[in-house]
């Protein structure tokens, strides 16, 4: 059962998301918060599998809450899915830099929202597909995640970690990567636990952005032109 916390300052949105998610047999809404401060408190008490946070909330913004819940030293760490009506780049970048595992627009299809919750709970990052091309092309040229010289990548990562990073950039899940590399899923998780701190990131999604930004993976030409 996937345990979810919902945080939004709009009652209608809270009610709608709760109804949408509780209709799924494998999802349970364990808490509903009306502002960022309450969301942070409830997340620490309930330790949900996913915290669905609005960007703009009274008290603390979703980005501030994500920064607290996703930090390397956070205890407990809670995966965050940001749901917002705003697709402004600064909000998207802020959410990614805070360590959020996903970013989705509220006007996404209901099935896409449910799928995003499952993906984040399973350890897979997600970004609204309407934003992906712009995010990849623009984030690569921003220095908010500290780039490193290309030659240092080989020094930072083991050959197996490098392979895993490339597969993450293809959008593969832990299960997919384990099958490709013919190892146990637990082995992939162990590699990720060692790899993320080396890159100075806190989520799989940040690791993928890091890979593009540091030219470990090239942004496809068609995506650069959009």
UniProtKB/TrEMBL annotation:
The keyword Transferase does not apply. Signal peptide: none annotated. The keyword Transcription applies. Residues 3-121 form the Response regulatory domain. Pfam families: GerE (PF00196), Response_reg (PF00072). The modification 4-aspartylphosphate is found at residue 54. Residues 150-215 form the HTH luxR-type domain. Keywords: DNA-binding, Phosphoprotein, Transcription, Transcription regulation. GO terms for biological process: phosphorelay signal transduction system; regulation of DNA-templated transcription. One of its GO terms (molecular function) is DNA binding. InterPro entries: CheY-like_superfamily (IPR011006), NreC/VraR/RcsB-like_REC (IPR058245), Sig_transdc_resp-reg_C-effctor (IPR016032), Sig_transdc_resp-reg_receiver (IPR001789), Tscrpt_reg_LuxR_C (IPR000792), WalR-like (IPR039420). It comes from the Bacteria. PANTHER family: TRANSCRIPTIONAL REGULATORY PROTEIN NARL-RELATED (PTHR43214:SF24), TWO-COMPONENT RESPONSE REGULATOR (PTHR43214). This is DNA-binding response regulator, NarL/FixJ family, contains REC and HTH domains. It comes from Kibdelosporangium aridum.
């Amino acid at each position: 059962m996937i345990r979810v916390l919902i945080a939004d300052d709009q009652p209608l949105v809270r009610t709608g998301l709760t109804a949408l998610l509780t209709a799924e047999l494998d999802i349970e809404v364990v808490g509903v918060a009306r502002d960022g401060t309450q969301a942070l408190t409830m997340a620490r008490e309930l330790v949900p599998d996913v915290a669905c946070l609005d960007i703009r909330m009274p008290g603390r913004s979703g980005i501030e809450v994500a920064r607290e819940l996703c930090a390397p030293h956070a205890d407990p760490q809670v995966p965050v899915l940001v749901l917002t009506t705003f697709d402004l780049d600064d909000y998207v970048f802020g959410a990614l830099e805070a360590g959020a595992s996903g970013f989705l627009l509220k006007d996404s299809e209901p099935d896409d929202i449910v799928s995003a919750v499952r993906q984040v709970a399973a350890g897979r990052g997600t970004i609204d597909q309407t934003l992906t091309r712009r995010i990849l092309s623009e984030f690569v040229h921003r220095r908010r995640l500290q780039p490193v010289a290309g030659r240092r990548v080989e020094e930072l990562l083991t050959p197996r970690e490098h392979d895993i990073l490339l597969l993450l950039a293809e959008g593969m899940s832990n299960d997919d990567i384990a099958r490709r590399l013919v190892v146990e899923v637990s082995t992939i998780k162990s590699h990720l636990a060692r790899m993320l701190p080396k890159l100075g990131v806190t989520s799989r999604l940040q690791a993928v952005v890091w890979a593009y930004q540091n030219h470990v993976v090239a942004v496809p030409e068609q995506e650069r032109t959009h």
